[in-house]
Structures are given as structure tokens and as C-alpha cells.
């Protein structure tokens, strides 16, 4: 069984992935942020490095999904292949930071990969307001994230909401992270676990 967590930068995906992996004894798969050779360059020169960065993420996520499927284990994934294709790449294209040629190339590659991997059994979307995202980003203090603008986060949030509105590939659970604190409050985490259990009862 595969569970995946989606959400904007700073929504709490990695933290919730860790907590749920521990609770359910699932194997966690995290986003490759530390070893990504393009991230730092991208944040300093987005138009030059946007295509390289998005191809790196797509490749890394595709490999991850294939590894998860072939492992035969119950897994949970921090960020999905869909977010790259429906949110980040189109946003860069719309901002004029990725050329039409590169975007078309990217999209064709994604569609090919999407046909091969299939959707997770359950998608958990962490919905968050911009002030909450900004607070979380500052709290974790990743240097390359310091230059992320409110406008950029806003555009991403709009795309997330549009994508989730039309998501029809499988079961979907939406969690409003402005209203709960699953990090410091065990009851809030318990609420999420109860909702996941309810979804699972419908899965089998």
C-alpha cells in the first residue's frame, strides 16, 4: 500500500511523513533536498536552472515511486510526482522562468512516467495559509529558502488548490494545518490517524 503527502513548501509534509511512518510502521521515502545539485543555483538564478531542477526532481521522484512499488512494503512518500508536474513546473513556465520548448519537453516526459507509476492508494493534502507557511520556513532556517517570496508561495498555493479540486486518481484526505498542531499536540495527530483509519477501512 502506498500513501503520499502533498503540500506547499513549509506545510509540514516531512514531519507528518515521519510521524505516520512511525505510527503505522510504514517505510518512509523523503524528498531529496540535501543532495539536490541544482537547488542553490536555482534560487539564485531561476530562469537559468528551472528546467534542470524540475528534470532532477522528476527523475528522482520517478525512481522513488518505482522503488516503492517493487519493494512490496507499505510506504509513505513525502511529496508526489504530481506536484512537480501540476504545480512547480507550470508555475515556473507561467512566470516566464521556463521556456515553452522546455516546458513541453518536461510535460511529455511526465505524462510518460505517470502512465507507468499509477496513483497512491491515499493522497493526504496539507492545506495551509501563507502566514503559516512563512512561519514554518523561517523556523527551519534552510538558507536557500530565505529568498522565497510571498508572491511565489501565493502562486503555488493557488495551483495546489486548483489541482486538489480536480484530483480524481484515488482516495484523498485534506488536512487544514492552520487549525491543528500535529507536531506538539498528540490529540491533533490522533485526529489525523483516526481519519486515515477511516479511509483505510474503505480501502480494503
TrEMBL record:
Q: Which residues bind substrate?
A: 31, 43, 54, 79, 84, 145
Q: Name one GO molecular function term.
A: ATP binding
Q: Which GO terms describe its cellular component?
A: cytoplasm
Give the matching CDD domains.
Answer: dNK
Q: Where does ATP bind?
A: 7-15
Q: Is Transport among the key words of this record?
A: no
Q: Which InterPro entries match?
A: DCK/DGK, Deoxyribonucleoside_kinase, DNK_dom, P-loop_NTPase
Q: Which residues form the active site?
A: 78
Q: Which UniProt keywords apply?
A: ATP-binding, Kinase, Nucleotide-binding, Transferase
Keyword ATP-binding tagged: yes
Top-rank lineage group of the source organism: Bacteria
Deoxynucleoside kinase domain location is: 4-198
One Pfam family this chain carries?
A: dNK
Q: Per the similarity annotation, which family is this?
A: Belongs to the DCK/DGK family.
- Designated name of the protein: Deoxynucleoside kinase
